[in-house]
Design a protein that fits this description.
By secondary structure, the protein is α/β, with parallel strands linked by helices. The protein has 4 domains: 54 residues, no CATH class; 161 residues, Substrate Binding Domain Of Dnak, Chain:A, Domain 2; 150 residues, Rossmann fold; 217 residues, Rossmann fold, CATH 3.40.50. Helix content is 49%, strand content 10%. It contains 25 helices and 16 strands. β11, α19 and β12 form a beta-alpha-beta unit. α5 packs antiparallel against α7 and α9 packs antiparallel against α10. The chain is globular, with a radius of gyration of 24 Å. The chain binds FE(4)-NI(1)-S(5) CLUSTER with Oxygen. FE(4)-NI(1)-S(5) CLUSTER with Oxygen binds next to α13, α20 and α23.
Amino acid sequence: MKKTAFEKSIDPASQTLLQKAENEGIETAWDRYEQQLPQCSFGQLGVCCRNCNMGPCRIDPFGEGTEKGVCGATADIIVARNLLRMIAAGAAAHSDHARDAVLTFKKMSEGEAGSYKIKDEAKLFSLASEYGIPAEGKSREEVAVELANAMLLEFGKQNGPVLCTKRAPGVRLRLWSELGIEPRGIDREIVECMHRTHIGVDNNATHILLQGLRTGISDGWGGSMIATDVQDILFGTPEPKKSTVNLGVLSLEKVNLIVHGHEPILSEMIVEAAENPELLELAKEKGASGINVVGICCTGNETLMRHGTPIAGNFLQQELAVITGAVEAMVVDVQCIMPSLGGLTGCYHTKFISTSPKADFPGTVRMEFHEEKAYETAKEIVRAAVENFPNRNREKVSIPEEKQECMAGFSVEAILNALGGSPDPLIEAIAGGAVKGIGAVVGCNNVKVQHNYGHVNLVKELIKNNVLVVTTGCNAIACAEAGLLVPEAAVLAGEGLKGICEALGIPPVLHMGSCVDISRILVLASAIANRMGVDISDLPAAGAAPEWMSEKAVSIGVYVVSSGIYTVLGTIPPVLGSQEVTALLTKGLDSVVGASFAVEPDPFKAAKMMLEHIDKKRKALGLK
Ligand code: BF8
């Protein structure tokens, strides 16, 4: 049975546009998902192997048919190998993003990317000292070049540990070292995953999964952390800012330009170019009252965190934004961009502009973006959007009314500032019971579940029970749309958390950034654990990804658990075909890294599981 717009999303703006899509005969991800049903159950269980050309092989999970692939691989081996490849792909995406950010930083420092500047000098020098680079007698550019080179070495080095792992508590580091899962070099771990999963290499599920943990750690405490650090130097460390979210941020009178994807290298320049007086003048000439840059997905989170740029929506709203008929340009770089946008933009006047040398899509205008002439290219892109304004077909335009205020920009530095410079007040609030614990809720949207339902309800349950929530990615956008990212949302929190939020003037849900910024959550967890003299796994904290779908999310889940944080997944990973892998992920890991995964699609039950875990940790710490 076809789902109604109300069943597809809990968000009224999205429901309106889903209805518009249906009226206009426009296809969306939800329609394509329905066309895929029933989905392949071998794929769902993870028991299909295409790693060599004797296959594809698939295993009958009930033991009534084929039990081994042609090479003899069992369900356990196949599931573990497939999972490892997912982790590798996710870690590669975050880390390659980081590499590009560092290369831009290097070019800027060498005077070859004049559009970029050092925005956070203090962070530059503190990172230089962390990387062991003496700064005396050197210009800041010289220090920056040395830092960029040192960061680049983290990708290719052969012997670890990856430097930023030192930010983890000492006991955690020793545990990783004893387990042999301390990452050696970011690229090395990803390459080794591909090697191990080639036919005839690693055929022991536990052994394969340990490499998964090591690769995940090299993402969270390596690639993602470097991306966050270098972006803070280049674009500024976020501070709390107000903005607005949801599809209603699109403007009837202005040129609407959406930046979508992940790398702020591009979107930072677009935000700047949209303020160019010549282009603003051109917009007026074309009949528009201004230029409205808005974000989608994690690029949106990056510009929101640093500039307060509005966000039009999260992953499942990218098509809906185009369906408003009011978007002059959809400008994309990498990751989470649906190839369907090509055909879809063709139904409207929207220009679909791809900019990354790495990523192209059907139906795009290519405007390749290179750091050397970043601002010039950004201006050309904005100009293309402005010139497209007169082509907007007013009869096709329908922008939902819904837009919601939000507060974002909670970097670790900003959180510590709000707390008066140290995590102590938060620790005291936890110890005294006003704050029961910390919930890290992150991740994507997934058409398999109702859009934003899991995100919003899980977070509401947590804050109601005095759990302070930190959020990133598409969860942060869902929470913003539901009005949870404003200080006034404290009324939805339990008495203790409400009091803290009111005293500090902060929301009960803190937006810490994009998905690579989950590294900020790790640093915060580490700071709290160090201050309390315990490991991260001892903290009254739990994680969740209620609507996850991407391979990046798999890598994230793995490094969060490897860091000692129990994590509840809202959609089922393709591992149930192996009892061994399922048992390892949901139980076995506990005795290895002090945390494990759970799967629970119902957000109310998931919240209960997280709360029980937090209570258990509180008890173990001797807290009431
Ligand atoms: O980068 S944008 S859909 S993958 S959560 Fe998920 Fe959203 Fe993608 Fe994480 Ni961020």
